[in-house]
Amino acid sequence: MYKLVYGSAGFDAAVKALYERPAFPPEAEESARKIIAGVRERGDEAVAEYAEKFDHVKLHPSEFQLPLSEARKIAAKLPAGDKLAIRRALEQIQQFAKLTKPRNWMMGVRSGVKVGEKFTPMERVGVYIPGGTAPLVSTVLHTAGIASAAGVKEIVAITPPGNTHPAVMYAMLQAGVTEIWRLGGVYGVAALAVGTQSIRKVEKICGPGNAYVTAAKKLLYGEVGIDLVAGPSEILVIADKSADPEFVAADLLSQAEHGSGLEQAVLVSTDRAMIGKVERAVLRQRDTLKRQATIDKVLANGVFLIEVPDEEIAAKVASSYAPEHLEIQTENPERVAKMITAAGAIFLGKWTPESCGDFCAGPSHVLPTAGSAKKFNGLETVSFFRRTSLVKYSQAALKRDADIIARFGAMEQLDAHGRAGTIRVEK
Fold first, then answer.
1. Which H or E run includes 268?
2. Cβ density class 246-262: b for 16+ within 10 Å, e for less
3. Helix axes of 272-286 and 292-301: crossing angle, nearest 10 degrees
4. Hey, which residues are catalytic here?
5. DSSP conformation class of 133
6. Per-residue pLDDT, 259
7. Can you spell out the DSSP letters for 379-423?
8. Cα angle for residues 196, 202, 207 (degrees, 5° grid)
9. Distance (Å, rounded) from C-alpha 60 to C-alpha 341?
10. Distance from C-alpha of 282 to C-alpha of 248, rounded to nearest angstrom
11. Strand pairing partners for 156?
12. 370 by DSSP, 3-state: which?
C-alpha cells in the first residue's frame, strides 16, 4: 500500500502512474489482432482451433451453441433462494432501465418547423459473460437484462466453454437471452462481430472482459458497436472523520479480490487518523477472505491511501482519477458529489456500498475504467437503441431558410446542396 500526502514533494510523480493507468497492455492488442484475423479469414475452423488452444476443449461447430433446453436443465439445479435473489435483482435493474428508456418526441420549434427524435431498439446484440475465477451472475442481469427491457429481440450470450454454473444459466433465461454460445475470449467476440458459417453477426457487443477481450472490442469498433473500453476494476473512496474505517476497508477489498491482480483501490481522506485506521482494517479483514493471493497482488501495487486538506481537493483528486466506482463516505456526501466532474458511478453515504451497484441497485455495473469516465458513459438503456433525428419543414418555413441554405452551399462550394433548397421556392 502506498501512503501519499497531497501537495508533498513527489506527490505529482507518485500519482502520475495512478492517473495514467492503461485499459490493457500493448501485447494484448497485438494478440487480439491476430486472433480476429484468423476468425475473419477461416470462420468456424478458426473458432474451433482457438477454443481448443485457449479453453482446452474440442468443439465441433455444431457444438458451439448451448441449447436453451440444456440451459434449463442446468438452471433447475439452482437452490430456490438463489433463484429468488436473481429475480429480485433483475426486477430492480429492469425497473431502472425502464425509467431511463428514451422516448420518441417531436415538437414545433419555429413556425412551420418540427424537429424530434425517434428511438428504435436494436434487433440483435451480443453480451459477453466472463468465465474465469467466478460465475459472474450479475453481469448477465446488467447486460442482457437491460437489453431485454429495451426491447431487443435477439440477445446473444457468449461465455467461455465450461461456464455453465446453474446461477449463470438461470440468470440468462430470466434476463431474456435467446441464444447461448460456448465461446470465450477474443475469438468469441470476433465471431459475434464478423460472423462465421454458423454464427450470425450482431449489431453491438456489451459486457466486461479481460485485457484481451477489451483490446478486441477496441479493434472491432466500427465494424460492430461496443459499449465502452474498460480495464481492470477500481474503486475510490472519499472519507472524512465521520466514516467507519471498517466499512471503508471492506469496500476497498471488494475490488481487490476481482482476479487479474491489476485492480486498484484508492482512499482519499481529509482525516490523517483515518488513513492509519483503514490500513489496519484492510490488513485485518484480508486475513478473513478467500481470494488472498489475488488481494495480495493489489495490496502490493494497487492500493493508494491519500491524505488531502479538504473536500474540494478530495473532489479534485477523485475527478482527475475518474474512477469506475466512487464512494463518498462523508457527513454531507451530496455536497461532495456536486463537485465531482468524472466518475462511472457514485455511491452516496456509508450505507451504500459499491456492491449494491454491482448486484441489485438498478443502474448497470458495466462502467468505464482507467480514467475513461471522462470520455464514456456506463452501459445504459439507451445503449441498446438506434437514435434517429426527425425534421419537417413547411413550404413557408423553407422559404425563410432558403437564403441560408443557398449561402452555405456557396461558401462550402456545394452548389447542388444549395440548389436542393432553392429549387423548391423559385416558382
1. strand 264-269
2. ebbbbbbbbbbbbbbbb
3. 150
4. 324-325
5. T
6. 65
7. P-GGGGEEEEEEEEE-HHHHHHHHHHHHHHHHHTT-HHHHHHHHT
8. 115
9. 50
10. 9
11. 126, 179
12. coil
| Mean pLDDT value across residues 142-170 | 96
Instruction: Report which DSSP code applies to 373.
Output: G
The Cα–Cα gap between 39 and 348 comes to 45
SS (H, E, C) 3-44: EEECCCCCHHHHHHHHHCCCCCCHHHHHHHHHHHHHHHHHCH
For residues 197 and 44, the answer to whether their CB atoms sit within 8 Å is yes
Please give the C-alpha separations between residue 219 and each of 101, 124, 195, 335, 418, in angstroms, as whole numbers. Answer: 29, 20, 15, 40, 39
127 backbone dihedrals φ, ψ, rounded to 5°? -125, 130
Tell me which amino acid residue 258 is. H
Residue type, 82: D
Q: If pLDDT is split at 50, 70 and 90, which confidence band does 421 have?
A: very high
Say how far apart CA 107 and CA 116 lie, in whole Å: 6
Nearest alpha carbon to residue 307 among 282, 274, 349, 279? 274
Distance CA 288, CA 265 (A): 18
Calpha distance 321→328 (Å, rounded): 14
Say which DSSP state 190 is in: H
pTM check: above 0.85: yes
Residue showing cell 459475434? 192
Residue 124, number of CB atoms within 10 A of its CB: 17
pLDDT tens readout for residues 87-135: 999 999 999 999 999 999 999 999 999 999 999 999 999 999 998 767 8
- The C-alpha atoms of residue 398 and residue 36 are separated, in whole angstroms, by 49
Distance CA 378, CA 254 (A): 20
